[in-house]
């Protein structure tokens, strides 16, 4: 009976929906053939699983007892069939996959937050550039106000280029 329950468990897993369109959007062009092979194989397995009956077919032992001439042979087969235990594979990878997924989600969240911070900084810079005086109308004082790093320190460095040589 274990054989049939594992088949049913496999069927439940296979019936989970996969958003193939969203998956396909994330596949790079150089891996498109592998993706198509995976989808074809998945569709074939899914079709095979859906073709299986919901409940296993029951064996009519009394029919076999009436048809088989050797006495006790069907009883022996029935006893052996009921004693048959097919081991189910032990899931050893789900916990590792879940840990990897949690780690990936955490790093993705950190990246998203860092990106939001960078976006805010860039928007401030864009506002500064959009609201400044146009370059063709700008004076040196306007330039030094908008870009303080361009201001020359003529007091500290009285001779041209008014900057330390190392900064040139």
| Helix percent band | 55-70%
Query: Unreliable stretches, pLDDT < 50, 5 or more residues?
Result: 1-8
Total number of distinct structural domains: 4
Helix-strand sequence: HHHHHHH
- Shape assignment: rod-shaped
Number of helices: 7
Query: How many strands in all?
Result: 0
Give a quick account of the main beta sheet: strands, pairing sense, barrel closure: none
Rounded mean pLDDT score: 86
Amount of beta strand: under 5%
Class of secondary structure makeup: mainly alpha
Distance between the termini: 82 Å
- How large is the radius of gyration? 36 Å
Describe the protein:
The protein has 168 residues and is mostly helical. The protein folds into four domains: 1-57; 60-89, no CATH class; 92-131; 133-168, no CATH class. It has seven helices and no strands. The model is unreliable at 1-8 (pLDDT under 50).
């Amino acid at each position: 009976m274990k054989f049939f329950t594992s088949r049913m468990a496999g069927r439940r897993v296979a019936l989970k929906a996969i958003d193939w369109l969203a998956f396909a959007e994330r596949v790079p062009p150089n891996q498109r053939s592998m993706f198509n092979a995976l989808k074809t194989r998945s569709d074939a397995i899914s079709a095979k699983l859906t073709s299986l009956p919901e409940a296993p077919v029951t064996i009519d032992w009394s029919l076999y007892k009436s048809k088989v001439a050797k006495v006790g042979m069907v009883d022996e087969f029935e006893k052996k069939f009921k004693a048959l235990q097919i081991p189910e594979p032990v899931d050893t990878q789900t916990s590792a996959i879940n840990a990897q997924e949690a780690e990936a989600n955490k790093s993705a969240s950190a990246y998203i937050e860092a990106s939001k911070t960078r976006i805010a900084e860039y928007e401030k810079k864009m506002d500064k550039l959009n609201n400044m005086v146009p370059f063709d109308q700008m004076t040196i004082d306007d330039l030094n106000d908008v870009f303080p790093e361009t201001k020359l320190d003529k007091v500290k460095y009285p001779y041209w280029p008014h900057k330390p040589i190392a900064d040139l």
